[in-house]
Specification:
The complex is a heterodimer.
Chain A (H helix, E strand, L loop, with lengths): L2 H52 L2 E7 L2 E13 L8 H7 L5 E8 L4 E9 L5 E19 L3 E16 L4 E10 L5 E7 L8 E11 L1 H9 L12 E19 L5 E6 L5 E9 L4 E10 L4 E5 L5 E4 L3 E4 L9 E9 L4 E8 L1
Antiparallel strand pairs in A: 1-11, 2-10, 3-4, 4-9, 5-6, 5-8, 5-10, 6-7, 6-9, 11-14, 12-13, 12-17, 13-15, 15-16, 17-18
Chain B lengths: L1 H58 L2 E8 L3 E8 L7 E6 L2 E3 L1 E6 L2 E3 L10 E7 L7 E8 L4 E7 L1
The chains are: A alpha+beta, B alpha+beta.
Chain lengths: ~350, ~150
């Protein structure tokens, strides 16, 4: 082969080699490009997966039922030797309650009690309640001849009548030595709510050293004509009293949800499921991280019942003595499930 | 005269041999390039297809929200929460395959092979015989081969 032919062969070989190199570079470039895109997509996927894992919602409370407030204000009552005057005026103040009765009894010189009975009518099943009383209780002791002379400690006890055991349950007890008004807040359970009445009793006991001394010496005292018996004068003023009764009337609950996750969450579906009904509420509720919101299910608009019929949320009622499963579904595909027992 | 004739023949032979060499080199390189192209493309395709399929499957996500049984059919409430559209290929209830009757999206019924768009909520209507079982295990297999499971108490 002469030099010219070798030159031609080299040129042709070189061209092909160049084509091969270009091809290889192109393939490598495409592969790198693909790997880059792959990395981008994978990092996006990892971000999504990471957010999905770190999403966390907590239902703080599920409020079921309505609340009615039975109010009574500015009642003054006196124990011991005071006559229960003013019952008529107290009754007038109770006029906004269906029926009422008020009883002031005197169980001796050292204590007095006031009974309040609230009659109410509810369009549903009573669940629980609470009573708030703003009252002042004071006591004085002295003798028959001197009248009240010294201020004494008094013990205030709040009772509610338990309709299941037919007895009074002590809700709160405290000792006061001041005429200042104080708040007494107590929780009422279902046993305290007969279905149409709540009975609250305020009992006040005076702690009189004079009276206790006489009691202790009782067995040693022989009749002496000029001895005057110690007496206790107790005064209870109820400035404000409020009984709230929560009852179940079937309306959909209000759910308090807190986002305890690391990123904001969007609830896209809410389910309310019992044995016979699967109710689906399409929603679009965003909860930023660390915040708490209330979802009133009555205001969620149109819902699908059993995947077939559409009904307005306000028309859907809960049933008493039922178990419901509430599911919150987020846009990331997490489902947070809670059980609601209504009984 | 003899010398001239030999030179002329020698020139022709050079041209022929040069051409033959060129053809041989071109043919060889063409073969090498074709083989390289074919091999690389095959390799690239298989790798790309496999990884692309894997990525697409990874990007897919579906949540089974609820199971609503009826006497002879059931609705499975699902939502596409992934980054891809999803087609349902198989549905199993308690490990037994059931027939997909239709896909219901926004109240309208569509054939079983209808794709469910990203973010869409849908019901899968399946044939279902009422069972005494208190627990239902639903398995949905997508067209990309991804399995989704969920359990429901009846």
């Amino acid at each position: 082969m002469n030099s010219r032919s070798r030159g031609q062969a080299s040129t042709i070989g070189g061209v092909f080699l160049a084509v091969l190199i270009v091809m290889l570079v192109s393939y490598i470039h495409m592969t790198l490009n693909y790997i880059t895109n792959y990395n981008i997509e994978m990092s996006q996927w990892v971000n999504v997966a990471n957010e999905r894992i770190r999403e966390d919602l907590v239902i703080i409370s599920i409020e079921v039922g309505n609340e009615v407030s039975l109010e009574l204000d500015d009642v003054n009552s006196y124990g011991a030797d005071y006559s229960p005057k003013g019952i008529g005026s107290i009754r007038n103040r109770l006029a906004n309650i269906d029926q009422r009765s008020l009883d002031i009894s005197d169980s001796g010189n050292y204590s007095c009690s006031i009974n309040f009975e609230f009659k109410y009518s509810l369009a549903g099943q009573a669940l629980n309640g609470n009573v708030s009383i703003y009252l002042s209780a004071t006591g004085m002791d002295g003798y028959e001849d001197t009248g009240p002379t010294d201020a004494i400690e008094v013990e205030v006890m709040i009772y509610a009548f338990n309709f299941e055991t037919n007895s009074w349950d002590l809700l709160k007890k405290c000792i006061v030595f001041s005429s200042e008004f104080k708040w007494y807040n107590c929780t009422l359970t279902r046993e305290h709510l007969s279905g149409d009445s709540v009975r609250i009793m305020i009992m006040v006991i005076g702690r009189s050293e004079k009276a206790l001394r006489v009691e202790k010496r009782w067995f040693f005292i022989t009749y002496v004509s000029d001895v005057y018996w110690p007496l206790v004068w107790l005064s209870v003023s109820v400035d404000y009293m409020n009984v709230k009764v929560k009852y179940f009337d079937g309306i959909l609950p209000t759910i308090k949800v807190k986002n305890v996750g690391a990123c904001s969450s969007r609830i896209v579906d809410i389910w309310l499921i019992n044995e016979t009904h699967h109710v689906h509420f399409p929603t679009n509720i965003t909860i930023p991280s660390g915040t708490e919101i209330s979802i009133d299910m009555n205001k969620l608009g149109e819902a699908e019942v059993n995947g077939v019929t559409k009904r307005d949320a306000g028309e859907i009622k809960l049933t008493y003595n039922s178990r419901y499963v509430i599911k919150l579904v987020t846009v990331r595909g997490n489902i947070f499930t809670y059980v609601l027992q209504i009984s | 005269m003899r010398i001239v004739i030999r030179m002329k023949h020698k020139g022709q032979a050079n041209i022929v041999s040069g051409l033959v060499l060129a053809v041989a080199v071109i043919a060889t390189w063409t073969l090498i390039l074709s083989w390289a192209h074919f091999s690389l493309e095959t390799l690239q395709r298989s790798v790309f297809e496999e990884t692309t399929h894997g990525i697409e499957a990874l990007k897919e996500n579906l949540v089974i929200e609820d199971f609503i049984p009826n006497s002879n059919w059931a609705l499975i409430a699902i939502r596409n929460v992934g980054m891809n559209n999803i087609k349902i290929s198989h549905v199993y209830i308690n490990d037994t395959e059931v027939t997909i009757n239709s896909i219901i999206i926004d109240g309208a019924e569509y054939p079983p092979d209808t794709a469910i768009d990203m973010g869409k909520y849908a019901y899968i209507n399946v044939t279902f015989t009422y069972t005494q079982a208190s627990y239902i295990r639903v398995t949905i297999v997508s067209e990309r081969g991804v399995n989704y499971y969920s359990g429901f108490e009846l």
